[in-house]
Write a structure and sequence with these properties.
By secondary structure, the protein is an alpha/beta fold. It has two domains: about 180 residues, Hexapeptide repeat proteins (UDP N-Acetylglucosamine Acyltransferase, domain 1); about 50 residues, no CATH class. Helices cover about 35% and strands about 15% of the residues. The chain contains five helices and 16 strands. A seven-stranded mixed β-sheet has the order 3-6-9-12-14-15-16. A five-stranded parallel β-sheet has the order 1-4-7-10-13. It has a four-stranded parallel β-sheet with strand order 2-5-8-11, with no helix packed on it. Strand 15 and strand 16 form a beta hairpin. Helix 1 runs antiparallel to helix 3 and helix 3 packs antiparallel against helix 4. It is elongated, with a radius of gyration of 25 Å. It binds coenzyme A. Coenzyme A binds next to strand 14 and strand 15.
């Protein structure tokens, strides 16, 4: 009876995973379930995880680990067989995704390639993130430690997140900080985590100012024509929009 229940549950979860791939991957629109299962690494990794997780739940040793290992070899996606994965997860592209043993993933979550839900060191017990429903995690993002990612949050590509993330927020940067909450910019002092200082441009600007001053002095002393004005130094990354820190 328990076996039948597990089988039904796995079938339902796989159906939801297939629906999620079709809903969230534009290139999967109109692709049949068999083609998705045969050629979408994220879908394959989830199928393997659903089976490994059911076997693990039934107390079967070794086999869940072997299935997770084979899935990793085939897809480049490593999901620990004991990790809790909710329904309708979509893993786009997939290579390099790592989901640790005590990670918890809610329903309707999207992960891009290179996402890590990992620990910060050699802790034991709960040491991986808990990701609530409808969260999107951009490619290369690293979420480390037993942190909580609030529902509907978006984590920017290549962010490194080591603290809890509020619901319905956008977090970017290293370390990751909220830049939007409920669609609004985060206001207040010290909240501009996007327009990072550009020390190279600052140093060059200082040098350029000093060279221009020296040129002016030489011109005055020698009575020669002033040289063409030195090139302005531009920041490496132009600042767009209003600075939320008010600076
Ligand atoms: C974070 C993300 C989800 C956008 O979320 P959003 O809530 O719509 O936020 P916005 O696009 O309005 O961006 C908010 C600010 O963060 C900045 N930002 C966005 N993504 C960023 C990132 N990954 N790293 C650093 N800054 C980022 C934006 O430039 C913007 O800055 P501004 O306030 O100066 O305009 C998106 O940028 C992202 O990283 N998606 C991942 C997609 C991905 O991995 N694709 C792989 C396909 S193969």
């Amino acid at each position: 009876m328990a076996g039948l229940y597990s089988l039904t549950r796995v079938a339902r979860e796989v159906r939801r995973d297939l629906d999620a791939a079709r809903e969230r991957d534009p290139s999967a629109a109109g692709v049949g379930p068999l083609e998705l299962l045969a050629t979408w690494p994220g879908v394959q990794a989830l199928l393997a995880h659903r089976i490994a997780s059911a076997l693990h739940g039934a107390g079967i040793p070794v086999l869940p680990r072997v299935i997770a290992y084979l899935a990793r070899v085939l897809t480049g996606i490593e999901i620990h067989h004991a990790a809790h994965v909710g329904e309708g997860l979509f893993i786009d592209h997939g290579a390099g995704v790592v989901v640790g043993e005590t990670a918890v993933i809610g329903d309707g979550v999207t992960l891009y390639q290179g996402v890590t839900l990992g620990g910060t060191g050699f802790e034991t017990g709960k040491r991986h993130p808990t990701v609530q429903d409808n969260v999107t995690i951009g490619s290369g993002a690293k979420l480390l430690g037993p942190i909580e990612i609030g529902h509907g949050a978006k984590i920017g590509a290549n962010s490194v997140v080591v603290r809890d993330v509020p619901p319905n927020s956008t977090v970017v940067g290293v370390p990751g900080h909220p830049v939007r909450i409920d669609g609004r910019r985060v206001e207040g002092p010290d909240t501009d985590w996007i327009h990072l200082p550009d020390p190279v441009a600052d140093a060059m600007r200082t040098l350029s100012t000093r060279v221009a001053e020296l040129e002016r002095m030489v011109t005055e002393l020698g009575g020669t024509a002033p040289p063409a004005e030195a090139e302005n130094v531009h920041a490496l990354r132009p600042v767009r929009g209003r600075n939320p820190a008010g600076g």
